[in-house]
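SDR family oxidoreductase, pasting as requested.
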Amino acid sequence: MTNSTSQTKPLTVITGASSGIGAALARTFSAAGFPLLLLARRLEPMQALELPNTLCKAVDVTDIDAIKAAVKDAEAEFGAVGCFINNAGVMLLGEVHRQDPSEWQRMLDINVMGVLNGIHAVLPEMKRRKTGTIINISSIAGRKTFPNHAAYCGTKFAVHALTENIREEVAMDDVRLITIAPGAVETELLSHTSDENIKAGYEEWKTHMGGVLAAQTVADAALFAMNQPQSVCIREIVLAATRQQP
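Structure tokens follow.
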């Protein structure tokens, strides 16, 4: 959904924008006046958000050419990308000795290569313009390990590492890279796991701690980081429900 309303905020791209944290990010950044490019495999849920100054594209983050093409289309309408939020991710929990290796590959493709693809699509131009912000939605599982999370933690540790590494590389170009690492969040993420016992245990853990983060809380943290002066980079935000111990 687009309109001709004048804008003062830069174009923001959000991956995985069809549900959960991605949809919350879309609503939050739109309300703050940012024109949006929303990317996800499912087009209809993004369109159903009915946000102004927004272009929705059915794009798989493993397809770097599709990301670049979508960015080009959005920039033609809204100007250069000022913020790119790598939010798309998948969590497939399991014990490594039992888990199907295809689940590891899927997480690596989306959680790591998808993030790198998003960065690659916009970073050269951000460096050239000497401004820009890339926010990578990681996880507290990128800082510590959890039972049944081995491969997932591996992908999220990678997101933490690559974000900080690239931040150092582009700091003198006034480009910011930010990691946001939520604890447990109420989203569809757990539904991707195929092991029913693990899913039941995870739900019991969430209930035991009295509830988990709302997706909106994560979106608010991202907007807070984005709204700092370009000369200020909040390198990492770690947030979790107060009762979440690990």
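Note for the archive: Helices lie at 20-31, 43-48, 64-78, 101-129, 150-170, 196-208, 215-226.
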